[in-house]
Structure formats: structure tokens, C-alpha cells
Amino acid sequence: MSTQAGKPDGPVPALTAALAALAAEHAAVYGYGVVGGRVARERRDEATAAYDGHRARRDALVRTVRDLGGAPVAAAAAYALPFAVTDPAAAVRLAAVLEDRVAGVYSDLVRAAEGELRREAAGALREAAVRAVRWRGSGVAFPGLAERAAGREPVATAPVEAAGADGTH
Question: For 98-148, how does the pLDDT look when each residue is reduced to its tens digit (9 = 90+)?
């Protein structure tokens, strides 16, 4: 991902949004490790492709954050999942949740960025929305805004919680 030209003093909205997207990608990579271990065999290739896609986005965001003058956040050692993933159906639900949450942080980045970074964020938002539809079997009117419309916490702060935050793993 490319960056905006120039770096103004003080907090940069694009940097803040890129850091949130990076944190969400770290969580998605972890979450897809769980999905891949529980999803039905016929959807394993889809889970692997999503895992690889999130790893690539994560790596690009590390460069973007540095280009914006920030320090990339490291992945947590583990993340607490939003619910137990004990069977293929739960794995599919987790994949849809991960994609919805990633779409939310990319919608924030689209709003905060300009130029090439904005185009890249819009592409990532579109990819997450398409994957969410494939996992869930239905779409939402405004991908990336579903969590906000439901009156929940902003997705930028809740991709999945770091392990230990609620005592689960």
C-alpha cells in the first residue's frame, strides 16, 4: 500500500486508521488459523485463501504504517474469540465475523486516507465484504458499517480481543 504525500505534525487520521486495520489483520490471521482447523473439508481451500489474503494485507499495512511515520503494532501471542469454535458451523460463523470486523476498520481507513492508500483500503473493504457474503451466504447493505448500525462498539477497537482480556483463549 502506498501512503499520502507529506506528514503533518500531530496525530494523523490515516495513520490511526492504518494502525487499527493492522491490528484487525493480525486478529484475522489468528482467527483464520482457528477457522482452518475446524471448517469442513470442502471449505478448507476458501479458508486458506482468506488466511493468505489477510497475511498479505497485514504485511502491506506494516509498510504503510512505517511510511506514514508510525510504529507497526505487533500481533498478540493469542486472541480470545467472540465465541467457542467447536465445529464447522461455528468456524463458518467466525470467518464471517472476522470479515465483517475487518471491513469495518477498512471503512475507517477509506474515510481517513487519500490517493493510493484510499484505493487500497477500498479494495480491502471490498474483498472483506465479498468473503463475508461467501461465508454467511448473505450480504449487508453497507459493508463495514454493520457493527455501527447495530449500536455496538466501533469495529476499529474490537477485531477480536487479545487473549486474557476476558480470561478466555
Answer: 999 999 999 999 999 999 999 999 999 999 999 999 999 876 655 556 544
Neighbours of 50 (CB within 10 A): 26
Q: How far is CA 36 from CA 30, 75, 89, in A?
A: 10, 19, 12
For residue 128, give the 3-state DSSP assignment.
helix
Q: In sequence order, what are the beta bridge partners of 162? A: 79
**Does the pTM exceed 0.85?**
no
| Cβ contacts of 136 within 8 Å, gap of 6 or more | 92, 96
Q: Which three cell numbers stand for residue 31?
A: 482467527
The candidate with the shortest Cα–Cα distance to 49, out of 130, 157, 159, 165, is: 130
Find where cell 505487533 sits. Answer: 74
Cα-based angle 106, 84, 19 (whole degrees, multiple of 5): 25
